[in-house]
Specification:
By secondary structure, the chain is of the alpha/beta class. The chain has 14 helices and six strands. The protein has two domains: about 60 residues, 5,6-Dimethylbenzimidazole Phosphoribosyltransferase, Chain: A, domain 1 (Orthogonal Bundle); about 270 residues, 3-Layer(aba) Sandwich (Rossmann fold), CATH 3.40.50.10210. The protein is globular.
Length: about 350
């Protein structure tokens, strides 16, 4: 397994020459120039990532990082902590939202225990546990710097293994009670906005509990003093192991020149950390949906990304990323299967000045 420093130092920009060629082909298809809007942008981005004119995304998977968060002890979630372990186990039973959506998109589901506070023994659950849940960020750092780096490197390794198995498009997901609090804390470190713009009600808090959650996020930042110029410090002090693992997934996908899709708020926070570690990582990331969590919009703006879908979802698990697989498939199909103006015996449209 390569080190984080080694991987990040070898990430390169997108192939601009291929992107120019693909844009010209898109303009030659039998349609008004640019009329497929952001579908065309997706194809151009995929070509730049893959480095060839006809990018393939036939084999896909969603990686779900599962971990507990010590901050749950502060009453920041309406769900008890053991729900993390229960839902992680339910992923293996095929009954959760992400199970439905990965089946619907004919994609694989990779379940990783990177920090669940329970002993999980199932052949479908990959045990890469860094620790049995993070520490309480309201009292000190979530984890050590070494633990944060280890979790990132696990994410990189998971990606590397799947690339070797032929995966050409990744989606990101997570499971961890309390992780909208850790994501909110990360967003609050980087965002210049009121705390309520990045901290939401999560799974459904009362007004009093929601106020407590915002107070806990403020307290965690005051106590830990994360250095916003050092994203690993931010991650270690107020983040979570699921976020760290996903940050590694984004970094690993960029290293392997493979597109990867953000799901919702938590994976967007992970993408933000990854892009702070190496800004080139962002070029390999595609958005999926606009999460109903308020912090998601703030983080997506910081990433300079616009969601493909706006469905009011906030389930997590990678469900939005799996839905976005349909959009990516449609974009590639249009690009590869539509005829050109020459095929259609139609005079080609000329772009307006």
């Amino acid at each position: 397994m390569f080190s984080l420093d080694y991987i990040t130092s070898r990430i390169t920009p997108l192939n601009q020459n291929t992107m120019v060629v693909v844009k010209k082909r898109l303009d030659s298809l039998t349609k008004p120039i640019g009329s497929l809007g952001r579908l065309e942008d997706i194809v151009v981005r995929l070509a730049g990532i893959k480095g060839h004119m006809y990018p393939e995304v036939d084999k896909k998977c969603v990686i779900v990082m599962c971990a507990d968060n010590g901050v749950v002890a502060e009453g920041v979630s309406s769900c008890p902590k053991d729900v993390t372990a229960k839902v992680t186990q339910n992923f293996t039973r095929g009954i959760t939202g992400i199970n439905i959506f990965t089946r619907h998109t004919n994609s694989d589901l990779v379940i990783v225990d990177i920090g669940v506070d329970a002993k999980l023994e199932h052949p479908q659950i990959i045990n890469r546990k860094v620790k049995w849940g993070t520490d309480n960020i309201a009292k000190g750092p979530a984890m050590s710097r070494d633990e944060a780096v280890k979790a990132i490197e696990i994410g990189i390794d998971i990606i590397s293994q799947r690339v070797d198995q032929g995966i050409r498009l990744f989606g990101t997901g997570e499971m961890g009670i309390g992780n909208t609090t850790t994501s909110g804390a990360i967003a609050a470190v980087y965002a210049d906005c009121p705390i309520e713009h990045v901290v939401g009600r999560g799974a459904g808090l009362t007004r009093e509990d929601y106020q407590n959650k915002m107070n806990i996020v403020k307290k965690s930042i005051e106590i830990n003093q994360p250095d916003k110029d050092d994203p690993i410090d931010v991650l270690a002090k107020v983040g979570g192991l699921d976020i760290a693992g996903l940050a590694g997934c984004f970094i690993g996908a960029a290293y392997h020149k493979t597109p990867i899709i953000i799901d919702g708020f938590i994976s967007a926070a992970a993408a933000l950390i990854a892009s702070k570690i190496n800004p080139l990582v962002k070029e390999y990331i595609l958005p999926s949906h606009g999460s109903a969590e308020p912090g998601a919009e703030v983080v997506m703006k910081m990433l300079n990304m616009q969601p493909m879908l706006n469905l009011g979802m906030r389930l997590g698990e990678g469900t939005g990323a799996a839905l976005a697989f349909h959009i990516v498939d449609a974009a590639v199909a249009a690009y590869t299967q539509m005829g050109t103006f020459e095929d259609a015996d139609i005079e080609q449209y000329e772009p307006l000045e």
